[in-house]
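User: I'm putting together a teaching handout on how sequence relates to shape, and I'd like one worked example. Could you take MTMR5 protein from Eubucco bourcierii, show the sequence you're using, and then write out its predicted structure as tokens right after it?

Assistant: Happy to. First the sequence, then the structure tokens directly below it.
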Amino acid sequence: QLVAYEVKRMRAEEGNKQKILRHIRELAEKLYKNENPYPAVTMHTVKKPKEGHHLRVQQKPFPRLDEGLVQWIIDQATAKLQTAPPAVKAEMKCMVPSGPPIAAIMERNGNAMANSARRLEVVRNCISYVFENKMLEAKKLFPAVLRAMKGRAARQCLTQELNLHVQQNRAVLDHQQFDFVIRMMNCCLQDCTAMDEHGIAAALLPLVTAFCRKLSPGITQFAYSCVQEHV
């Protein structure tokens, strides 16, 4: 039904948070009602006595209840419940038109995928520039790379690209290269969620023990010394 009827409305609502939220609430309500067709039993409310009720003289006493009659009514109701068939929601079948072609809905997703591919390309290019010592080009792309790290795909791309350079025996860096790599790693770990712990964070572990720089003859600093504070 969403595909058939709601596409135009969803497009019209784009950019208006209030309308989108209202739409989501309506959908949530429909889904909830579908899962919970039988409303909860409402409690009977006892009305409050009116002001000055205690001043009235003619108050009728509450009638004495017949114990046998009350028990008989309860037994009757219990018997009815036991013999009653189980309540089943009547299934309402209806034909839903096919709606607009899927391509119309996928347009936005296509744009998102293209944006994602561009981000990954930026990450790859920046890392290449760093290892080729083209620092001016790397600096230009660096802010975009840090923004891209918000996405899981870009974080994964970073680990894969760095791993390729380790395999090519390019783990010993100069000071500028080391600084760029550390900043990317820190940003990547900062944006990691608990879901990434056994994926991206785990993939970075061997890398932070591989990348290093020479501080002076005989003294080497490894990348883990700069990123080990992350949870």
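A couple of points you could highlight for students: The chain has a mean pLDDT of 80. The beta strands are 172-173, 212-216, 219-222.
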